[in-house]
Amino acid sequence: MTTDLVAALDIGGTKIAGALVDGRGSILVRAQRATPAQQDGETVMRAVAEVLGELAASPLWDRVAALGIGSAGPVDASAGTVSPVNVPGWRGFPLVERVRAAVGELPVELIGDGVAITAAEHWQGAARGHDNALCMVVSTGVGGGLVLNGQLYPGPTGNAGHIGHISVDLDGDLCPCGSRGCVERIASGPNIARRALDNGWLPGPDGDASAAAVAAAARAGDPVAVASFERAAQALAAGIAATATLVEIDIAVIGGGVGKAGDVLFGPLNKALASYATLSFVSRLTVVPAQMGTDAGLVGAAAAALALRADSAAAGV
């Protein structure tokens, strides 16, 4: 990594975060707005522009060499467009073009949010030092990204490693993506909670029916809550093992809200993984919690911008 300063955007259905980040991954300036996710696309873009305007007002802005964007997806990096499932006003939205116009033609790199988190974990987190890794976000949805041969591998459109939509139950429930039995349909937070409720789990007096509440119940020994996490762990294990068999990763990193559940997830996950990752070249695969926390999207977007800047410098641009 060079010591250039870059700008980063982390765009999701809840917030639009921005930062100026140095070549060591330190965040020097921050800006943030709530995502007006249910409003029209131009309203969402105005919130992005406000974040960029706040960053540009910093005296450090003159040192910014490139801008990286990690966005909820699907994204199409080849076209510079985004269509986040949870931002209905953006469908094929020309985000790269609009951001480039707002920041004075700086080089802009777009990647999916799962790929951004992968970049962060490989640069500074749990996948550091591993040349072949899968990093996952298990939260409201399930996303991911790949590091292959020591390099981030976003794929042609920026979506490679999207493990959430590998089918692990051929005749399973219909997923909103249109397929059946997807990892996300079984292992995401809302689906863990849904399955527990469907099987008779009752929330406590506070009425909290979230996956975090199911995790707390599982830690306390509630058998229905335990079973819901075991089913999620089985789906994750099958998807991770399939990925490892295909591209020979040696570590899988799990972040996101569900990834914070601790032993109620990682215990059954490691047990299930032993049943699926059976071939000699995947049997040493390890699964670990993510380390980068809530800044992972920003740090990963910055990593992508730094890589873009390095590639441009190498090409003499």
Automatic annotation (TrEMBL):
Q: Which residues cross the membrane?
A: none
Q: Where is the signal peptide?
A: none
Matching InterPro entries: ATPase_NBD, ROK, ROK_cs
Query: To which protein family does this belong?
Result: Belongs to the ROK (NagC/XylR) family.
Annotated protein name in UniProt:
Glucokinase
Q: Tell me the organism.
A: Streptomyces mangrovisoli
